[in-house]
UniProtKB/TrEMBL annotation:
It comes from Octadecabacter temperatus. Signal peptide: none annotated. SMART domains: ANTAR. Coiled coil: none annotated. This is Putative transcriptional regulatory protein pdtaR. The gene is pdtaR. Pfam families: ANTAR, Response_reg.
Length: 194
């Protein structure tokens, strides 16, 4: 597990904050910043750009969860939240906010390291899945554009689908471009001529 992470902790109680710092240092994480108020979170996130955020709240409400998820930019970094109590609606709000870990029954020193490690692993897994989904969407979009370009060539030149693709590919190679770029240019030009 990477130990040179910048960790931001949101904890109102000074005694608990010191316990958290001790637990993080025991886990090998030394670059820890603590703020006492969630209201300072947005500014601190911008200034510090932490790798992970740990938030301890006794009884958050749905709006607080959503706000903290957005302010902490939970889609771009792991965010672990410890709460004393929850219900199904709050749990769903935590998931919707993009939290990597939502731990009920409060923060306990011996749980911090495994929860953060799990939050980091979960965040990386979700990030990888999102990246794969984005790549699949882009490949589908590219495929559709290439098919449109092939259709234009088939109609304009009276050639087969394989010949149309071969022409796109040859043009791309001759110009040192990608097939998708040539296809996009052809479709764009055809739309301008209509």
């Amino acid at each position: 597990m990477q130990i040179d992470l910048t960790i931001l902790v949101v904890e109102r109680d000074k005694t608990k904050a010191h316990e958290i710092i001790d637990a993080l240092m025991d886990g090998g994480w030394n670059n820890v910043t603590v703020i006492s108020s969630p209201t300072a979170l947005e500014r601190t996130v911008k200034d510090l750009d932490p790798d992970i955020i740990l938030i301890d709240l006794a009884n958050p409400d749905r709006d607080t969860l959503e706000h903290l998820g957005q302010v902490a930019n939970a889609r771009n970094r792991p965010v672990a939240m410890f709460v004393d109590q929850t219900d199904e609606i709050m749990t769903q709000a935590a998931i919707s906010a993009g939290l990597s870990a939502y731990v009920v029954n409060g923060l306990q020193k011996d749980r911090i390291k495994p929860v953060l490690e799990t939050a980091i692993a979960r965040f990386r897994m979700v990030e990888k899945m999102q990246s794969e989904l984005d790549a699949a969407k882009q490949a589908l979009s590219d495929r559709k554009m290439i098919d449109r370009a092939k259709g234009l060539l088939i109609r304009a030149r009276g050639i087969s689908e394989d010949e149309a693709y071969g022409l796109l590919r040859k043009t791309a190679m001759d110009q040192g471009r990608k097939v998708i770029d040539v296809a996009t240019a052809l479709v764009t030009a055809a739309e301008l001529l209509q």
